[in-house]
Amino acid sequence: MTTDVQKDRSMEIQKAMLAEHYQALSTAEDDGRHSVYTFVPGNLTELIRCFDALPVLPEINALQNAMRKKSWGYISTAEKLGHSEDVCTYVKCDIGMARSGNVGPTGQRLPKPSLLLLSYTGCFTFMKWFELLQQEYDCPIVMLHVPYQGGGQPTQSMRDYVVRQLEEKVIPAFEEVTGQRFDQDRLSEMLVRSREAEDAFVKVLESAKSTPSPIDSYFGGVYYIAPIFTAFRGTPEAVRYYDALWEEVQGRVARGEGPTTPEGELIEEKYRVVVEGPPCWTGFRELWKMFYDEGAVVVASTYTKVGGLYDLGFRHDPERPLETLADYCLGCYTNLNLPARAELIADYVRDYKADGFLINSVKSCNSFSAGQLLILRQVEELCGKPGGFIESDLVDPRYFSPANVKNRLESYFQMLEQKRHAAAKGA
Amino acid sequence: VVVVGSFCEQPPLNLIRTIERAGCYVVDDDFVLGHRLVQGDVAAAGDPLAAIVDAFLERAREAAFIYRDEGKGTELVRRARQSQAEGILFCAPSFCDPALLDQPMLVRAVEAAGIPHTNFKYAENTGQFQVIREQAGTFADSIKLWGAA
Prior knowledge:
heterodimer; A: about 425 residues; alpha/beta; four-stranded parallel beta sheet; 17 helices; about 50% helix; about 10% strand; B: alpha/beta; globular
């Protein structure tokens, strides 16, 4: 392995896309463009772009700030304003950033929101987050309430409820803020492109069923989800990105190569694991290294499903634009009930031939962490593979203890190795 | 004092006893909030379902899960004045995002109204309230020291 940071071509494409987006945001107010703040789960990117507005994703800004080691300063600012140590650190990072001039992770100023689109999908904290931002910016806010899948499946009445809100509340709010009429044909055109990108994205995710896996579906996966989960779904740029990514992955499969890590290609795949929970963004590289140093590859993850469970078959349908947006919002991972989440993880373990699964329980995210110990036991029972549990945080560096996590991971991988030896002896 | 913590349930009785033993007399609170959300009676005449919906939408008290047109904390300030409270204790359960994220907004309103306040967290599964007793006691002393009495 080399010591320089290795990047795939698709990562360079994505870097350029993000740079262009942040550049557009930095001049949006001068250019007379509207910006709409919204969240990743249940994001309505096509609808936002249908009104020529630019999406701003506060969670993405928070995690990008963490990867650039800026989050602690912002969290500290928010705590000085009276925010508790215990609450979601994405929120505190965002509030701190807003109070520090709203300069985004790239060092460029972000526009004030023209509209806060509160898609309430699987996370109560979103509601409080935008209430706080509304106080910061004194701007309009519209809520899209997405019912929780308590029964394990979305129902027609849930779908109708979301569509009705889109028709009666969300779209009129967009029309009022932007001064543009809603153009359903334009929305459908974007949804055609969404579907194309989603097709390629799923092929990339499912390539991890190969042995060796050509991708890492967690540490690499967070790069793969970025365009489709954030500001680019429905754009030609997203289609081009996923086509390029799929071509790249196909090449790796053909050559029998493993995933690209920051230190080059992973030569030997020793362990295949599934991961539940978000990454620790402040220790992202360090945590990734703990995996690839042991030859561990994440072949499937739930975090890469927070912005949509495309691998279960969902695709945006341009023939029924509003209904498909409703289905999309209802189906995001954190909107699933706990049994559905446990079954999904167990299915991943089986389908991707994983040796086991790991849960990264982050301190500040209730929508992920609540119930994870229960999920751990359920998944073990469902798939018969061992689970491991590590703890960290989203963007607060105080809650990432590398030595403890490394110790826990090494112990887990040694256990997998011993079980493998024992199974071989038994056979 | 008014005790505020977006309590969906009854907080530990020892928490309330601790606050009272520290010299604070609780004159209003938001304990068991779900059962006390609707202010007044639900209308008995007309469509009963519409009456229930109306009660929740139009006559719910200020809570962390409701966006209101009137400024955040307006009702809290009004309650504190109506009950002639000399201070407000913010005492949210740890890891309760709705309560804890609401708090800075409420604090801002309370400060603007000039009402003394202090805040602390408690853990639902602990019986240790010594620190809270000290903090609430110090708060009570400061009211006695700086207040009209």
